[in-house]
UniProtKB/TrEMBL annotation:
NCBIfam families: ssb. This is Single-stranded DNA-binding protein. InterPro entries: NA-bd_OB-fold (IPR012340), Primosome_PriB/ssb (IPR000424), ssDNA-bd (IPR011344). Homotetramer.
Amino acid sequence: MNRVILIGNLTKDPELRYTPNGVAVTTFTLAINRPRTNQAGEREADFINIVAWQKLADLCATYLRKGRQAAVEGRLQTRSYDNKEGRKVYVTEVVAENVQFLGTRTGNEGGGYDPGFGSSRPAGRDDADPFGDPFAGAGKPINISDDDLPF
């Protein structure tokens, strides 16, 4: 089984690129605080490289920014290539399959994208901000007839 679930903050804005075939690919790095402090009493962090493809790549590039908190679910992948000096370089990264946009550095709530549900935009959200506050209209009357209720 190869499953990874991470929650952290972006260290910089995501980078969106396209393959020669036109497939979107976005890369970004999550800073994830370790649960304990080191011997000097300082909190350390791990920096994990994330790769998202296709529609998820577009959404990450559009809605994620430096400092924003995100949850990433995916799989661990290793690959290698030869650098300009001819040395083999090994890369370990997480290929994202689900990304939840948890908020900004100031703690504003966001939404997320789960390709397993088949929709890139949660239902009932404003087109201008598809990942905005789902409870923004709380307390306002709802226009619904008794025939629409299941009970």
